[in-house]
């Protein structure tokens, strides 16, 4: 393994840790609020290792939503990683199955985004070394900050409303996700329906909102495409 | 809002989410050679998953009803954080603006109104 490329991955991910660390703290605090102990909270961060889905699942578990809704919600949130897996797969194709299995476990938004940019910019980069520099660093920081969040979370008064940090993290991720017309339509529709459906039984508001948002995005594609080819 | 699910159920749900999430991650990395590309029928809706899901998580947290009606503190804090998120696309700045505004409205402004 090329040590210089590993170090380069660590260096490239460092500025992103400023966003990941508070996110991990919030995940730990949310776990404590939902009634999980330190072992369960860190266990979740190790086994699931996908922040957005962990936060959504913790919120639902804390409200005693049906476990099938909890699982389905978390899986829908993580479906985006299908795209990352497909996009990065060609770069991993020569590796042994064991290596691929390990690399896949560490796949995250940030690891994908940085690695694919580096692979495209430089043909000669050691793919495993660079990826591990980014992804393993994220893994370690995620586990440590989750644990810190649990220890912190139990000592903070309710009036501070620390759980409000959770949607704020999602908001910061939402803005870049609404990158063009149809994705903006998907966001607006999904959010609006989720607000209207907040009182739905089984806490189904999120799933219904997300589904409507996806359909709205698909419907918004066509007129915009026509506009683009019209030359107006 | 502590859960009333027993420990084994909490562990069970963590495990199931973990296994399914790992299957999603491994999918194309593991199958490359058998399945080289995402089928277009799947790829198009997948493009809208992040925006739709994240918005469905965010908006209901900002626009909420409590005993006295619309929760003003969350609405104001969410709106302000949205502007910061839009201008900076930075997680830390968004959190700082949102929590700062929430506390300002809740502890400084609402008590004197």
TrEMBL record, chain A:
Keyword Cell membrane: yes
Main location per the UniProt record: membrane
Alphabetical keyword list: Cell membrane, Membrane, Transmembrane, Transmembrane helix, Transport
Protein's GO biological process: L-valine transmembrane transport
Membrane topology: Multi-pass membrane protein
Compartments where located: Cell membrane
Transmembrane segments: 12-32, 38-58, 65-83, 128-152, 159-178, 198-220
GO cellular component annotations of the record: plasma membrane
Family: Belongs to the AzlC family.
UniProt name for this protein: 4-azaleucine resistance probable transporter AzlC
Taxonomic source organism: Halorientalis persicus
UniProtKB/TrEMBL annotation, chain B:
Transmembrane segments: 12-35, 47-71, 91-109
Record's keyword terms, sorted: Membrane, Transmembrane, Transmembrane helix
Top-level lineage group: Archaea
Pfam families listed in its UniProt record: AzlD
InterPro entries xref list: Brnchd-chn_aa_trnsp_AzlD (IPR008407)
Protein name per its UniProtKB record: Branched-chain amino acid transport protein
Native organism: Halorientalis persicus
Lineage: Archaea, Methanobacteriati, Methanobacteriota, Stenosarchaea group, Halobacteria
């Amino acid at each position: 393994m090329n040590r210089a490329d590993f170090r380069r991955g660590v260096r490239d991910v460092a500025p992103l840790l400023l966003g990941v660390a508070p996110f991990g703290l919030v995940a730990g605090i949310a776990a404590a609020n939902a009634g999980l102990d330190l072992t369960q909270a860190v266990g979740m961060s190790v086994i699931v290792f996908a922040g957005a889905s962990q936060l959504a699942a913790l919120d639902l578990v804390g409200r005693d939503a049906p476990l099938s809704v909890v699982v389905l919600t978390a899986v829908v949130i993580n479906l985006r990683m299908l795209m990352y897996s497909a996009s990065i797969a060609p770069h991993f194709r020569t590796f042994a199955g064991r290596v691929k299995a390990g690399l896949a476990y560490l796949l995250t938004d940030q690891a994908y985004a940085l690695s694919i940019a580096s692979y495209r910019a430089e043909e000669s980069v050691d793919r495993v070394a660079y990826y591990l520099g980014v992804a393993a660093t994220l893994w370690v920081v995620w586990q440590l900050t989750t644990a810190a969040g649990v220890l912190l979370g139990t000592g903070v008064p309710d009036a501070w409303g620390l759980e409000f940090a959770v949607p704020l993290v999602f908001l910061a991720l939402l803005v870049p996700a609404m990158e063009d017309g149809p994705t903006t339509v998907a966001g607006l529709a999904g959010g609006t329906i989720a607000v209207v459906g907040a009182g739905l039984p089984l806490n189904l508001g999120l799933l219904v909102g997300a589904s409507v948002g996806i359909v709205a995005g698909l419907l918004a594609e066509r007129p915009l495409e026509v506009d683009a080819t019209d030359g107006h | 809002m502590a859960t009333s699910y027993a420990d084994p159920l909490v562990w069970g749900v963590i495990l199931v989410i973990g296994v399914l999430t790992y299957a999603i991650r491994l999918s194309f990395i593991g199958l490359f050679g058998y399945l080289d590309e995402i089928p277009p029928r799947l790829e198009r809706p997948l493009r809208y998953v992040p925006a739709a899901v994240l918005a469905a998580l965010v908006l209901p947290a900002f626009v909420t009803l409590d005993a006295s009606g619309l929760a003003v503190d969350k609405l104001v804090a969410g709106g302000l954080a949205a502007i910061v998120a839009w201008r900076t696309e930075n997680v830390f700045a968004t959190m700082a603006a949102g929590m700062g505004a929430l506390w300002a409205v809740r502890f400084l402004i609402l008590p004197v109104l």
